[in-house]
Design a protein that fits this description.
Elements lengths: L4 H17 L3 H13 L8 H12 L4 H11 L11 H13 L3 H13 L7 H16 L11 H10 L2
């Protein structure tokens, strides 16, 4: 194992790359993050980041759904054209994987009516479902409850 920080960064990136080549979706996701922000000694490359997230998403990695959802949104990286249908599809996939951010994103989409019929009640039902899962201890370390308040607070940020 390397001794200095620069060598440690190289070593860790090489490990992520090897795991990614072997098809590990988590490694692909993190390489996407590193390329997106130019971390760990990698040059910033949003296009390469999207390629890694797409590979990871194809294997059902929910974090990648969220990143691709953001990239397809109106404030994405500029690499992908905004596509509200894709935003919705990735939010649904993350929700179906029982990923907390998927619940929040899907609820916000319904509450705002992003290219779908606005349905605030459906949004509240999704947030209440998340709150029940949090209260049951299904998401260790995730304690942000109060779905209605959180949903309204997030909508006020628009």
């Amino acid at each position: 194992v390397p001794n200095n920080n620069k060598d440690k960064e190289k070593f860790s990136i090489n490990m992520f790359k090897k795991a990614s080549e072997m098809g590990h979706p988590g490694a692909q996701f993190f390489l996407g993050l590193f390329y997106h922000s130019g971390q760990r000694g990698l040059d910033e490359d949003p296009k390469k980041a999207v390629e890694f997230w797409e590979a990871s998403a194809k294997q059902g990695y929910p974090d990648s759904y969220i990143e691709l959802m953001r990239q397809h949104g109106p404030y994405g990286s500029g690499v992908i054209e905004p596509d509200y249908q894709k935003v919705f599809e990735y939010a649904v996939l993350a929700y179906e994987k029982d990923f907390p951010q998927g619940f929040i994103s899907l609820a916000e989409i319904y509450a705002r009516g992003y290219r779908i019929d606005r349905n605030f009640q459906k949004a509240l039902n999704i947030m209440e479902e998340l709150d029940k899962k949090i209260a049951a201890g299904l998401y260790v370390g995730y304690t942000d409850t109060l779905g209605r308040d959180r949903l309204v607070r997030n909508l006020e940020l628009i």
